[in-house]
Write a structure and sequence with these properties.
The complex is a heterodimer of chains A (76) and B (166).
Chain A: H1 21-32, H2 37-58, H3 60-66
Chain B: H1 9-18, E1 23-26, H2 27-33, E2 43-47, H3 51-63, E3 67-68, H4 80-84, E4 88-93, E5 96-101, H5 110-113, E6 117-122, E7 125-130, H6 132-139, H7 145-162
Parallel strand pairs in B: 2-5
Antiparallel strand pairs in B: 1-2, 3-4, 4-5, 6-7
The chains are: A mainly alpha (76), B alpha+beta (166).
């Protein structure tokens, strides 16, 4: 079976993550629309706890440097 | 702001509702509640500045050992005088940070935000959140990079909703 990389774009499975920030946002928006408010806030809390754990383990500067790569803001 | 060492912001919001505090959720958490793909480290509320409601809010804050985030690093408890005003009481609690705002941009307080807000169900209770359109408009008043990025994401949620995709 061909790998995703070897496939022509039209042959790629539909669950392949789209590339680019805007496309990823649209995928997330569509997914979040299916969740309850409780689930959305629980996801936020899980992301925050992950960043806090990274800060505790690595230091704030290093953890916050990673945060954009996982679509997590660093708080304001 | 600096984040609290722990965060259970959902539990914080739930406790406020269970204790009968009248407030509108604003800021990043209002966007999260309405399905925006953003992450926030705190809860921002605009509370009704009536004495009885401020007393209920203060009781919750006291129960959660709230202290005001202070540039001088003093550990000051929130007080009813500040909560009755139009200013901001930025607190750290056992469940995470909560900003109690007397008013937001354009001087909008609880009463002015009511017609701009919607109720969403949260653990069987109505949670009042500032509508996404107003959230975007207020966020676009800021000129920093993060605000512009968040406003753009929130606007995409609005567009997706209008096109039936979100």
């Amino acid at each position: 079976m061909a790998t995703v990389d070897a496939m022509a774009p039209e042959d790629a499975p539909t669950h392949t993550l789209p590339l680019g920030r805007e496309a990823r946002d649209d995928t997330l928006i569509a997914h979040l629309a299916t969740l309850t408010v409780e689930e959305r806030i629980a996801l936020n809390d899980a992301a925050v706890r992950a960043v806090l754990a990274l800060r505790a383990a690595w230091g704030q500067r290093e953890a916050d440097a990673l945060a954009p790569a996982v679509d997590v803001g660093t708080g304001s | 702001m600096s984040a609290a060492p722990s965060a259970d912001l959902g539990a914080l919001i739930r406790l406020l509702l269970e204790r009968g505090v009248n407030f509108t959720l604003v800021g990043g958490m209002a966007a999260v509640a309405q399905g925006a793909p953003v992450t926030t480290f705190d809860v921002d509320i605009v509370h009704a500045r009536e004495p009885a409601n401020v007393e209920r809010l203060l009781r919750v804050l006291t129960e959660l050992h709230a202290v005001v985030r202070d540039p001088a690093q003093r550990r000051l408890p929130p007080d009813s005088t500040s909560l009755m005003g139009r200013g901001h009481s930025l607190c750290i609690t056992d469940l995470g940070p909560v900003d109690c705002l007397g008013a937001v941009e354009r001087g909008l307080g609880y009463d002015e935000l009511l017609p701009l807000s919607v109720d969403v169900p949260f653990f069987g209770m109505p949670l009042r959140v500032l509508g996404m359109q107003t959230l975007v408009e207020l966020k676009e008043l800021w000129d920093d990079e993060e605000s512009r990025a968040r406003a753009a994401v929130m606007r995409r949620v609005l567009e997706a909703r209008r096109s039936g995709g979100g």
